[in-house]
């Protein structure tokens, strides 16, 4: 007599265990969240009115986490200024990078127009991180690493154009004049609450090139 065995049920392989989630965020993520929270609060309610407790509450971290990165609110301002400068430099470099390498007039025009547009879009943060930080630790405007970094970027364009005969030499002097002119006239546009910056930025670029004899 043949005995029929019941068919064996084949169970699917067990799914691999899900990777354990890290209990803490990476240090760079926590730092970025702290700085983003501070930036938002400084813009909303001002630097003096914002406390460290406000910043850590918005960032969702313990108060001790703040002091792990910054001795005080003023050191955070310095870090925010450096981050702001890095973003501005990247924005300007991206605009200039769209031009041909030896198109010095085009590169200068792109730099000026991008500078105007960036300043108009971010002037409130600009005034907070630069003015407040310099006031808090007594940095004179002549000893300003953020301004010097932007001047160095502009100076490189002007030096390249001077070497190619696009305009006269003295790139440092020209950089100082253009930097001051761009910020001066853009301050006026901010006061006038200018909505569309494109035509204004083009006019400023034209004026800078005329200043160089182009």
From TrEMBL:
Domain HTH tetR-type: 28-88
Keywords from the named record: Coiled coil, DNA-binding, Repressor, Transcription, Transcription regulation
Source superkingdom: Bacteria
Residues of the DNA-binding region: 51-70
Region described as Disordered: spans on this chain: 1-25
InterPro entries attached to this UniProt entry: DNA-bd_HTH_TetR-type_CS, Homeodomain-like_sf, HTH-type_TetR-like_transc_reg, HTH_TetR
Gene Ontology MF terms: DNA-binding transcription factor activity; transcription cis-regulatory region binding
PROSITE patterns: HTH_TETR_1, HTH_TETR_2
Stated name of the protein: TetR family transcriptional regulator
Natural source organism: Janthinobacterium violaceinigrum
């Amino acid at each position: 007599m043949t005995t029929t065995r019941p068919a064996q049920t084949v169970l699917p392989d067990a799914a691999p265990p899900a990777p354990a989630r890290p209990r803490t965020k990476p240090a760079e993520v926590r730092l970025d969240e702290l700085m983003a929270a501070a930036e938002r609060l400084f813009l909303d309610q001002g630097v003096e009115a914002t406390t460290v407790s406000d910043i850590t509450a918005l960032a969702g971290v313990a108060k001790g986490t703040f002091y792990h990165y910054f001795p005080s609110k003023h050191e955070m301002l310095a870090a925010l200024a450096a981050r702001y400068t890095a973003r501005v430099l990247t924005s300007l470099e991206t605009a200039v990078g769209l031009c041909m390498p030896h198109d010095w007039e085009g590169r200068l025009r792109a730099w000026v127009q991008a500078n105007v547009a960036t300043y108009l879009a971010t002037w409130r943060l600009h005034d907070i991180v630069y003015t407040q930080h310099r006031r808090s630790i007594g940095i004179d405007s002549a000893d300003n690493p953020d301004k010097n970094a932007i001047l160095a970027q502009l100076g490189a364009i002007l030096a390249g154009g001077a070497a190619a005969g696009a305009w006269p030499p003295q790139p440092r002097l020209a950089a100082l004049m253009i930097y001051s002119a761009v910020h001066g006239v853009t301050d006026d546009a901010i006061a006038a609450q200018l909505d569309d910056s494109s035509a204004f930025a083009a006019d400023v670029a034209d004026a800078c090139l005329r200043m160089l004899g182009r």
